[in-house]
Write a structure and sequence with these properties.
Largest sheet: 7 strands, mixed
Helix content: 10-25%
Oligomer: single chain
Number of strands: 17
Distance between the termini: 21 Å
Bound molecules: NADP nicotinamide-adenine-dinucleotide phosphate, zinc ion
Shape: globular
Strand content: 25-35%
Structural class: alpha/beta
């Protein structure tokens, strides 16, 4: 076991504090990663605040991890010392179920092992990337392609794949009218990826503060969701809406924006349930769906896509001692558009 510095929570309400976590011995198929960068996802906050249910403390979160391999187990073939690699939301899965067999480990029927907050095979609770180092099975470690800036790549491991996967699944591309609801960490990646896939992209965001940014990311249009007339004008006009909002939402308002056969795919994960009237769906054969992250092969595909197309998240690099302040700014939607922790600032 190796003891590494980390930043984590001791309960649901207090600020995060410096702590240490134990990383397991490097097994035959494990790699030890010296973490360089860790993104801050809103899921980290939902988890620690116990908004998705009770958790065990202390808990270190972070599932957007980029770093260098510093040690490999005796049987590792996929990565070597010195490689720039990443770890996302899943750190293991059963590998044998119908979903794992298709590379959809995010939907593992046995329940995958999340990078934080899951019970690991040794009975310990997995601890995430707000730390100096992590030990991960080689099959759940992504290679970071040349051409991606290491300091800006971590958010692709969750925000990037969580929007890329539904965009691909619902065939976002030329002629498809895509709306991205909420433009935070996930939302801004959704815009950039949908634009790169050739879709006709509209951003739906509160107020007008993010309008210029949305257009600069390549969106064709912007709708202020607090302007009821502007919302009325786009009723029935979308094929695909990706909802990335972290809070409860009047889902009916957004279902009404879909054309016949349109789909609203929810990736935002508020603690409150949605209320869905049957007649928001029935008269236009609409679909309300959900989606989570992406499987390891699809994450690798998305990383290659971003490297080839020069797609990077918009990031603000912070030191470890700024994490609590950054969380407050995420909660007040004052993030442009993803905080990345420089994990070399652990002192
Ligand atoms: P984020 O950066 O905080 O962005 C969330 C956005 O939601 C904000 O920028 C804001 O957009 C909008 N918003 C926030 N509060 C709102 C409110 N009260 N009413 C209406 N809109 C509000 O969060 P994120 O990291 O992108 O994550 C977004 C959500 O996706 C979270 O719930 C997270 O847990 C979830 N998530 C799910 C998955 C998955 O696998 N499905 C993966 C990662 C994250 P505007 O200012 O533009 O309106
Ligand atoms: Zn996430
Ligand atoms: Zn499985």
């Amino acid at each position: 076991m190796t003891t590494v510095k980390a930043y984590g929570a001791v309960n649901a309400t207090d600020p995060l504090v410096p702590m240490t976590v134990e990383r397991r011995e490097v097994g035959p198929h494990d790699v030890l990663i010296d973490i360089g960068y860790a993104g801050i996802c809103h899921s980290d906050i939902h988890t620690i605040r116990a908004e998705w249910g009770p958790i065990t403390y202390p808990q270190v979160v972070g599932h957007e991890i980029v770093g260098h391999v510093v040690e490999v187990g005796s049987d590792v073939t996929k990565h070597k010392v010195g490689d720039l690699v990443g770890v996302g939301c899943q750190s293991n899965s059963c590998r044998t179920c119908a979903q794992c067999q298709q590379g959809h480990d995010q939907y593992c029927l046995a329940g995958n092992t999340q990078t934080y907050g899951s019970v690991d095979t040794d009975g310990t609770i997995t601890q995430g990337g707000y730390s100096e180092a992590v030990v991960t099975n080689e099959d759940y470690v992504l290679g970071i392609p040349d051409g991606l800036d290491p300091a800006k790549t971590a958010p692709l491991l969750c925000a990037g794949i969580t929007t890329y996967s539904p965009l691909k699944h619902w065939n976002a591309g030329p002629g498809v009218r895509v709306g991205i609801v909420g433009m935070g960490g996930l939302g801004h990646m959704g815009v950039k990826l949908a634009v790169a896939l050739g879709a006709d992209v509209t951003v739906l965001s509160r107020g007008t503060r993010k309008r210029e940014d949305a257009l600069s990311f390549g969106a064709n249009a912007y709708v202020d969701t607090t302007d009821s007339e502007a919302m009325d004008r786009v009723r029935g006009s979308f094929d695909l809406l990706i909802n990335t909002v972290s809070a409860g939402l009047d889902i009916t308002t957004y279902l009404d924006l879909l054309d016949v056969d349109g789909a609203l795919v929810n990736v935002g994960a508020p603690e409150q349930p949605f209320s869905v009237p049957a007649f928001s769906l029935i008269p236009a054969r609409r679909t309300l769906a959900g989606s989570t992250t992406g499987g390891i092969p699809e994450i690798q595909e998305m990383l290659e896509f971003c490297a080839q197309r020069g797609i990077h998240p918009e990031t603000e690099l912070i030191s470890v001692d700024q994490i609590n302040e950054a969380w407050q700014r995420v909660l007040s939607a004052d993030v442009r558009y993803r905080f990345v922790i420089d994990t070399k600032t652990f002192s």
